[in-house]
Structure formats: structure tokens, C-alpha cells
């Protein structure tokens, strides 16, 4: 956008502001210069944190315009590329995000990567405030010898594979063996176990990518071990995910009775969600000896109190642990589990997208205080007009609801800082210039969306995701 077009845009914003929300008296009492200049805010990353922050800002600041720049040609981050395909109800948040995107004061620029396509400095020069919400796209490693072998992959990559993240189709996980060992017991680990053990007909009606459906249909996996360092009372999965596993057709869940020694006695001391989860595990354990094996063909095997120690060919060695004040402490005893495929699911971490970001590489997140990015770690001074929200700021914890609350809180901080003149919002800021660039606009995304849903309909699926970026760009009309 050149300067004249930009001025025109500012005037249009001013008219919108005038028409929509400001009372005439407020308008008259301020100079045109002050009111006509919209507060330009750039959000980096079109995941839940980005969209929820945009929603809040657009609602609370009637004189702001929000641009979202997103690395991929398509929006929604982990809602599209993380949430399990057989949890379509979770993806309903996309309707809220779409409503936000349709606000005339929001522009979406897909196919724009912070750090390569645009720098943080450029964005800070072009906007009054920049909010970083580019998520956590790396995984934590076990730091074991042999971890780089082909049969050891991260759950993050496996999830990206079945969810059609561009580039992930090349993963081709080897599903020709009988045993998969998943290290970690969070909900992502359970999602992965469910995808491996679900009857293929259950998955055919989801938006699982075709290549993944084909591989899963030919899978020889029969047993999935879900291994955690701590005990049942510390299990990281939640009750809904466990219930789904217990109900999977033709799949038997088998617990180890010795993992539950003394657990009964703790029940009354537990908070309600933990108590209900523990009761369900105990109930399932109690029923397992009398359960008819019937048409069971696969097993789900949660195993507690085991810490990863070594990867030895098609086996994984674990140290047997003991709990000391809720922490797992390794003993000298070990156990080996069969592992034709090892999936590491011990958490995500963020990367530093731009050299200008004050990034804590050890924790894998942007240094911040309540969403205000710190200029440097020593003085704790904040960088004016620079904010972070979502997993990039908090670390990879919680669900979409948690991310929403966090994003609203940071957006509120931005509003408060603007009201307190904590950074300049009066100078003219041009915003991102999309001209002559391979940008996917919101209309472009809608073309991709239409194409995907139509292709899905033909196969009885909610959508058939396009996994190639050039193909996405072609359909978007870039
Ligand atoms: C496998 C998995 C399953 C999950 N399932 C559920 C569930 O069922 N229910 C639930 O409530 N929660 C679930 N969650 C949690 C939920 O996905 C997160 O709470 C939420 O997505 C975090 O939002 P975010 O915006 O911080 O990050 P993200 O969703 O990761 O969004 C970040 C966005 O930034 C973009 N980006 C990355 N780098 C750049 C860059 N350099 N420049 C520009 N853009 C960039 C990314 O492409 C992405 O679109 C799941 C998480 C995972 C990992």
C-alpha cells in the first residue's frame, strides 16, 4: 500500500470508527489528526492465540485495525494441524475465528513467515504494536543415544503427518511392526495411540489425510504402550481421552495392577477431576480379569513409573522409578519394552523466529512478563509495543480454552498500555504492504476452504486437506 492509498485507508478507518462506535461529542473534542489515525496492530501467527487476541482488540478498540501475518497459506494453527481428526467438535472454534476474520478492520496475510519473509524490525516500524503468537513448532527430545534412528519419531511429526501439515507427508512412519511405544502420557500421546488403534472405518469419515488413511489401513500395529515416568495419580491424560480409549472397538486396555499399589487409599484426598480419572482407571483395572477377550485384536497398554533410559534396536529400555514427593526418581532396576516404532511425546517448544526477539532457548519461549516482551533479561525492561501470547509466551501448556484466556489477558494489557500512552500510537504507520507479493488473503483462504470441503464431500469426509503449498497458492489465486 503506498502512502496515498494508506491515507485513504486511514480515512476509511476514521469513517468506520465514526459510524460504528464513537459518539459525536468524543469525535468533536479530539483533533482529527488523533482520531483519524487507526491504531495499527500486527499479530504474528493465525492460531487460537492470534485469533482470540484479534477478537478482543477489535471489540475493545474501535479505532484499531488488526493485520494477522501467518507463515502458512492457511489459518488456524494447531486447530487444523494438531487437534485429532476424530475430534471435529473441537474444531468448531474455527467458526468464531472466521467471524473475527470477516471484520472489515482485520486483514489476513497468509504465506508470510516472520524471520524470513518479514523481520520483526520491519513490523515494528510499520505497526504501533506487534503481538507474537507463532506457537511452539519444535519438540523436546529424550536426549538418548540412537534417538535419531528412523524408527524414533516425535509425536509432533506423527500428528502433523496424519493432519496434513505441508511437508509432513514425507514422514512415512513405519507401521509394519507389532509394537509401538509412546513415551509420554499427555493427551497428545493418547490422541496418537487412538489414531493407531482406531478401526479404520472410524477414521475414514474424518479429515485424516488420504495418505495417512492408506498407511493406517495397512498398519500391522497391534499393541501401543503408553509409558510415563510417574504413577497413575500423576497421569497427564484427562478423563475424556481415557474414556474414548476404553470404548474403542476391538481394543483392550490392560493396566498393570502393581502400578496401582496404594492408589485406592489416596482417593479421598484427591481433587474432583483427578479423583474421577483415578476412579475410572481403577474401575477398568478391576474389570480387566473378567473381561471377555471376544473380538479383541489390539491392546492399549498404559505403563507407569518408567523413565526412558536407552534405545536398543527394536526395544526401549526404561529405568523403573519411585515417587519421591511427586517426582519420579530412577532406581537401578530396568525393564525393556518391545518398540518397533518409538513415538516421543514429551512436549513441544518454540523456536526463535527472528534475531530481534528476546528468546529463552532453554525454556523454549519468548521472555516476557504478563505478555509484555522483555527487552533484555537483566533489567526486566519491556520492549514498548511488543507483546507475546499463546504457547509462544506460556510454553506448550493447556487447551484452547487456556490459550483463549491467556490471549484475552494479553490483549487487555495492550489496551491498557495504549490508554496509558505506554508506547506511541499517534504517528502514521503504513502497515504491511502486500502489493506484488505471493500473499494469501482471507478470500484466498476461502477458495482453499471451498475446494477442500467439496473434495471431502465426494469421499464422505468433512474436508480433504491440500498438503502442498504450491497447490494451496494456485487454488488461492496467488
Ligand atoms: C497434537 C495437539 C492436539 C491438541 N488437541 C487439542 C484438543 O483436542 N482440544 C484443545 O482444547 N486443545 C488441543 N490442543 C492445544 C491447542 O492446540 C493449543 O492450546 C493452541 O493451538 C495454542 O495456540 P497458539 O495460537 O499459541 O499456537 P498455534 O496453534 O501453534 O498457532 C501458531 C500459528 O503461528 C504460525 N507460525 C509459526 N511460525 C510462524 C512464523 N515464523 N511467522 C508467522 N507465523 C508463524 C503457525 O503456522 C500457526 O498457524 C492440542 C495441541 C496439540 C499439539
TrEMBL record:
Its main location: mitochondrion. It comes from Drosophila albomicans. This is NADPH:adrenodoxin oxidoreductase, mitochondrial. It is an enzyme of class 1 (oxidoreductase). GO terms for molecular function: oxidoreductase activity. NADP(+) binds at residues 185-188, 229-230, 241, 398. It catalyses: 2 reduced [adrenodoxin] + NADP(+) + H(+) = 2 oxidized [adrenodoxin] + NADPH. Its EC number is 1.18.1.6. Keywords: Electron transport, FAD, Flavoprotein, Mitochondrion, NADP, Oxidoreductase, Transport. GO terms for cellular component: mitochondrion. Pathway: Steroid metabolism; cholesterol metabolism. It is found in: Mitochondrion. It comes from the Eukaryota. PANTHER family: GLUTAMATE SYNTHASE 1 [NADH], CHLOROPLASTIC-LIKE. SUPFAM superfamilies: Nucleotide-binding domain. InterPro entries: FAD/NAD-bd_sf, Ferredox_Rdtase, Ferredox_Rdtase_adrenod. FAD binds at residues 49, 70, 78, 114, 391, 398-400. It holds the Pfam family NAD_binding_8. Its cofactor is FAD. One of its GO terms (biological process) is cholesterol metabolic process. Coiled coil: none annotated. Belongs to the ferredoxin--NADP reductase type 1 family. The gene is LOC117571075.
Amino acid at each position: 500500500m503506498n502512502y496515498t492509498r494508506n491515507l485513504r485507508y486511514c480515512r476509511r478507518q476514521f469513517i468506520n470508527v465514526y459510524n460504528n462506535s464513537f459518539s459525536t461529542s468524543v469525535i468533536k473534542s479530539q483533533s482529527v489528526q488523533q482520531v483519524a489515525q487507526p491504531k495499527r496492530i500486527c499479530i504474528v501467527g493465525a492460531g487460537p492465540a492470534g485469533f482470540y487476541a484479534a477478537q478482543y482488540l477489535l471489540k475493545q478498540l474501535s479505532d484499531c485495525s488488526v493485520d494477522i501475518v501467518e507463515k502458512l497459506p492457511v489459518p488456524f494453527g494447531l486447530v487444523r494441524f494438531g487437534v485429532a481428526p476424530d475430534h471435529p467438535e473441537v474444531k468448531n472454534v474455527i467458526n468464531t475465528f472466521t467471524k473475527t476474520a470477516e471484520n472489515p478492520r482485520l486483514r489476513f496475510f497468509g504465506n508470510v513467515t516472520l524471520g524470513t519473509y518479514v523481520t520483526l524490525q520491519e513490523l515494528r516500524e510499520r505497526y504501533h504494536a506487534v503481538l507474537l503468537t507463532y506457537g511452539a513448532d519444535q519438540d523436546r527430545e529424550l536426549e538418548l543415544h540412537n534417538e535419531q534412528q528412523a524408527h524414533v519419531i516425535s509425536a509432533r511429526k506423527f500428528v502433523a503427518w496424519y493432519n496434513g501439515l505441508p511437508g509432513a507427508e514425507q514422514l512415512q512412519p513405519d507401521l509394519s511392526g507389532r509394537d509401538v511405544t509412546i513415551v509420554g502420557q499427555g493427551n497428545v500421546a493418547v490422541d496418537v495411540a487412538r489414531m493407531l488403534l482406531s478401526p479404520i472405518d472410524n477414521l475414514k469419515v474424518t479429515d485424516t489425510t488420504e495418505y495417512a488413511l492408506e498407511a493406517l489401513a495397512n498398519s500391522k500395529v497391534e499393541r501401543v504402550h503408553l509409558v510415563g515416568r510417574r504413577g497413575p495419580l500423576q497421569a497427564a491424560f484427562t478423563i475424556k481421552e481415557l474414556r474414548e480409549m476404553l470404548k474403542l472397538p476391538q481394543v483392550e486396555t490392560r493396566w498393570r495392577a502393581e502400578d496401582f499399589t496404594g492408589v485406592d487409599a489416596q482417593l479421598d484426598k484427591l481433587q474432583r477431576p483427578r479423583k474421577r480419572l483415578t476412579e475410572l482407571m481403577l474401575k477398568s483395572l478391576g474389570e480387566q480379569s473378567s473381561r471377555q477377550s471376544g473380538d479383541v485384536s489390539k491392546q492399549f497398554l498404559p505403563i507407569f513409573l518408567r523413565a526412558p533410559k536407552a534405545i536398543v534396536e527394536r526395544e526401549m529400555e526404561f529405568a523403573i522409578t519411585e515417587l519421591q514427593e511427586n517426582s519420579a526418581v530412577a532406581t537401578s532396576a530396568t525393564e525393556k519394552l518391545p518398540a518397533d516404532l518409538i513415538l516421543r511425546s514429551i512436549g513441544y517448544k518454540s523456536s526463535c523466529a527472528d534475531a530481534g526477539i528476546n528468546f529463552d532457548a532453554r525454556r523454549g519461549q519468548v521472555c516476557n512478563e504478563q505478555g509484555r516482551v522483555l527487552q533484555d533479561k537483566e533489567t526486566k525492561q519491556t520492549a514498548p509495543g511488543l507483546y507475546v501470547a499463546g504457547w509462544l509466551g506460556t510454553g506448550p501448556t493447556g487447551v484452547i480454552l487456556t490459550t483463549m484466556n491467556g490471549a484475552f489477558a494479553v490483549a487487555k494489557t495492550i489496551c491498557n498500555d495504549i490508554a496509558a500512552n505506554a508506547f506511541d500510537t499517534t504517528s502514521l504507520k503504513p502497515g504491511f504492504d502486500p502489493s506484488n507479493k505471493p500473499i494469501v488473503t482471507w478470500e484466498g483462504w476461502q477458495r482453499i476452504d471451498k475446494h477442500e470441503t467439496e473434495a471431502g464431500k465426494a469421499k464422505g469426509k468433512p474436508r480433504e486437506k491440500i498438503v502442498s503449498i504450491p497447490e494451496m497458492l494456485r487454488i488461492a489465486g496467488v
